[in-house]
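Quick log. Single chain, no ligands specified.
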Amino acid sequence: MTRDSNSDPAPDYDWPLDDRPRDDVEHVGLLEKGTNVFYQPANSMFFTTEIDEERRAHTFVEGSERELNPEETPAEAIESIGETTGWDSLSEWAEEHLESGEK
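-> predicted structure:
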């Protein structure tokens, strides 16, 4: 879908999450299927959201949680998610983790 100058701006990754504190998560990227992936460091959990443009919010996708495996880094999980589902784009946070391999 193409947006023209008269349309609403693209969905904002900073829009609120349904029931999760926004300051406790990092945006990881956008999957090829159009859903967003976030990472919650406090519990080492990745989860997926869909955009609700009417509410201007992210809606949590039930059953989308993915915990880090023992000894797995966030960078390894990002690579694994990409191999399984394919990334459309990655956030700056995710790019930095992939480049450094940081935990």
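The chain has two helices and six strands.
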